């Protein structure tokens, strides 16, 4: 047996005899502990970031009402952009300032607390309360009223960018204007137009729709609306997918126009655009949560979280051979809402 093995074999198995408790490392004071000016600067930074958070939340709410509904930056509505930035700066500022406060101003000395049984005595509870009071004292809440006020303001204002748009949409019908959700621009006689810019959108003839073809469709007159007149809102509800199948593949061919069917593109789960068509299975797939609808069977749900089929637009053909709507959808399009019966 080697010397090293012999030495190891003589060691005790008792951890207390084999190892000594090294204890806590020496406390290294922070720079601001020796320089009061730095501590004041850190306090000002925390106060400033809390205040910035509050101002960002308040500014987002003000700009939401000041900016026109149709103002955009690229394809992003400015009202939504400022609300998002307000929430990001509001919550981010609170998080950053809280972490900075803890690291720069609160007590950073390590402490060892001996383990004890779960049952506590009155003396131990009193000791716990004293520790909590000491923690409050270490945080400097009482000594730094400006930080406390800034934190309170930030916490009070940060929910506003989320809550105000909900309250701002309150209407007359049971507190919410849900009438806009019940109807679209589709009406009797409106031609089905290809979805595209105003100068490229065109009406669709029945003969243009061959078996297996797919058309993304909007109602006639939609592109004539301005943003102030609600172009984006109307298009979000009225977009339609037109598909032609062989009538023998349809389970209810009487609900088609020589195999042509038109369904809302708005998923009945959360409203994502359903536009991925698989020609062999006749399935429509929602890319957001994989709800799948069977076009050959009235767009019924065959997979995924959606609970209702896609609403079908009733269509016919006019004297010139163009596809037209026979009316609006027989039911509201898109996801459920609280007053929808089905």
From TrEMBL:
Keyword set, alphabetical order: 2Fe-2S, Cell membrane, Disulfide bond, Electron transport, Iron, Iron-sulfur, Membrane, Metal-binding, Oxidoreductase, Respiratory chain, Transmembrane, Transmembrane helix, Transport
Domain Rieske: 230-324
Listed cofactors: [2Fe-2S] cluster
InterPro entries: QcrA_N, Rieske_2Fe-2S, Rieske_2Fe-2S_sf, Rieske_Fe-S_prot, Rieske_Fe-S_prot_C
Record field: transmembrane: 44-66, 78-102, 146-170
Domain of life of the organism encoding this protein: Bacteria
Entry keyword Transport: yes
CDD domains named in the record: Rieske (cd03467)
CC terms in the record's Gene Ontology section: plasma membrane
Chief location: membrane
Entry membrane topology: Multi-pass membrane protein
Molecular function, one GO term: oxidoreductase activity, acting on paired donors, with incorporation or reduction of molecular oxygen
Family, per entry: Belongs to the Rieske iron-sulfur protein family.
Protein name stated in the entry: Cytochrome bc1 complex Rieske iron-sulfur subunit
Organism name: Flaviflexus ciconiae
């Amino acid at each position: 047996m080697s010397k090293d093995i012999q030495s190891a074999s003589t060691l005790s198995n008792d951890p207390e005899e084999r190892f000594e408790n090294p204890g806590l490392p020496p406390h290294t004071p922070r720079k601001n502990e020796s320089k009061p000016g730095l501590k004041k600067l850190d306090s000002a930074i925390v106060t400033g970031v809390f205040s910035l958070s509050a101002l960002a939340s308040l500014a987002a709410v003000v700009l939401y009402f000041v900016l026109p509904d149709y103002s955009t930056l690229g394809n992003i509505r400015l009202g939504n952009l400022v609300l998002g930035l307000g929430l990001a700066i509001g919550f981010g500022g609170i998080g950053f300032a809280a972490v900075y406060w803890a690291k720069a101003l609160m007590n950073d000395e390590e402490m060892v607390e001996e383990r004890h049984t779960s049952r506590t005595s009155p003396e131990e509870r009193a000791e716990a309360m004293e520790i909590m009071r000491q923690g409050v004292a270490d945080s400097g809440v009482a000594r730094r009223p400006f930080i406390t006020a800034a934190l309170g303001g930030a916490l009070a204002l940060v929910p506003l960018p989320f809550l105000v748009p909900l309250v701002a949409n309150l209407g007359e019908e049971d507190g919410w204007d849900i009438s806009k959700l019940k109807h679209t621009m589709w009406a009797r006689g409106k031609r089905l137009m290809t979805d595209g810019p105003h100068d490229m959108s065109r009406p669709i003839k029945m003969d243009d729709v061959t078996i297996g073809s797919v058309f993304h469709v909007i109602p006639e007159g939609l592109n004539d609306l301005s943003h102030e007149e609600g172009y984006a809102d109307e298009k979000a509800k009225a977009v339609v997918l037109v598909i032609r199948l062989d009538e023998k593949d349809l389970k209810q061919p009487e609900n088609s126009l020589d195999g042509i069917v038109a369904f809302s593109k708005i998923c009945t789960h959360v409203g994502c655009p359903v536009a991925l068509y698989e020609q062999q299975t006749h399935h429509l797939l929602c890319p957001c949560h994989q709800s799948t609808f069977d076009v050959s069977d009235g767009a019924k749900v065959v997979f995924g979280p959606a609970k209702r089929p896609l609403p079908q637009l009733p269509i016919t053909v006019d004297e010139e051979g163009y596809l037209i709507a026979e009316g609006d959808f027989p039911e509201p399009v898109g996801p459920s809402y609280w007053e929808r019966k089905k």
